[in-house]
Write the structure tokens for this entry.
Amino acid sequence: MNTVVSNWQIVSIFEKGEHVGDVLWAICVDDMTCRFHRGDYICTSQIIKVNVDTDIVKTASGSIYQLLGQGTHSSINFDDFELLRNGFSPQEITKMKYASNSSVH
């Protein structure tokens, strides 16, 4: 097994309303490849396969992730993908967008 993750989300990426792919966003529990430290966030390349029986995700780069616990599904716009890659969760991205669109009275 390559990397074990928790607090995971399968994030659907949309551009102009069209689904362009899914990535895994998660927190590292253990990484046998030594790319990540425990507690690091991970944003993967595009998911190519999810095995729900074994809780294994395989990505386009060939990485394999073992999912621990219950995860969630979320979505973001492609315009916000760089924020996701830089460690912001989909929920944090939504809050930032909401805050920037709100007006203070």
Observations:
- The CA atoms of residues 53 and 67 lie 11 Å apart.
- The chain is about 15% helix and 45% strand.
- The radius of gyration is 14 Å.
- The helical segments are 81-85, 90-101.
